[in-house]
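Course assignment 3, question 2. Fill in each field.
Student: A.L.
Task: Predict the tertiary structure for the chain below.
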Amino acid sequence: MDRNMSGGSGEQLLEELVRAAQLASPAELPVVLNRYAEAVGLGRAVIYLVDIQQRVLVPLVEGEPELELDTSLAGWAYRTNSLRVEEAPSGGLNLWLPLADGAERLGVVELNMSTLDGLKLRRCRTTALLLALIITSKRTYSDTIAQRMRTRPMHLPTEMVRAFLPPRSIGTGRVVSTAVLEPAYELGGDAFDHAFTEDVLHATILDGMGHNLASGIATSVAMAGCRNARRSEADLDELAGTVDEALAKWLPEQFCTGVFSQLHMPTGVLRWCNCGHPAPLLIRRQRLLHKALERPPEPPLGLPASLAGKARQVHDVSLEPGDRILLYSDGVVESRDEAGEEFGLERFTDYIIRSTAAGQNAPEALRLLIHAILEHRHNKLSDDATIVMFEWQPPDP
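Answer field:
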């Protein structure tokens, strides 16, 4: 009886948490969360957000130390998307739970309590799930959250391009799409996009000509044209044509390369249109299928219809369960160290294959890969490096 009463009271308090959190500013959110956590026996709660480059966990409210992602128990919870428990120095337990909105990893929450049982654990998990949704909703209009996720000032062209970017990772039960983009604070003209419409995943990568505000504007126009056509249910050749026309009309001196792709999630049929960009890569059963998606080249985006010639070619292939598709910009493989050695396509794909074999999930595999690319150049890239990876994993029949 007491247990049932406790559960009912907890549900009422959880409802109060959601209501109060909807009205709270980001600065007030920890206060609201702590009021609930203490009332249900979960102790003190601290929210940590991952920084843009996914290197540290930063407290939402100042006063707590930053935590290294690769060396802390909190980082372990983030990297593996799993609960971690440790004994607190003063007695009791510290719990670290990942904050994730679907496939998008936001950070972790720390909870402190004297004891842990099944009911408390369920409340911990429910709290973390709700908290992730609340943070996601507030992130769309809160500069506070954006500020806390940055470790240094951001250049103006980067600010503009990042305003257009979708979440870093999205996913369903059939597919996960994830992306990384560097240099995080000094972007040139690279961008990515991914979204779902009914049973189709749309994934795009763009590389604008140059490394200044004009190239960022061209990329932004290309992304807007892509979304406008996609939301009008245009086919891929029409979508590319829309981007061509927009750039030719408004920015006639600017060009972009890019790949537009669509994955039909129920069947695994992949369709794509490559506009002057490096060919997509296919990894199957931990092996790169060399040139599997390489097709005759198309011109870059932005050419007037009179110069572009015939309609863009759309290609298709049937994927197998577990296949991973990689879209990337040339800055990924052409990054050179001091000795002039390129990071290279082989090292790039080998890193993904080894991460997969080690059991890393897709977002974590890309996080580790982009850090390896940065380290190859001592964190000073000469060109943007962008990667989009999506994996088709349909449920068993």
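Instructor remarks: Residues 50 and 278 are 30 Å apart (CA to CA). The first helix runs from residue 2 to 23.
Grade: pending
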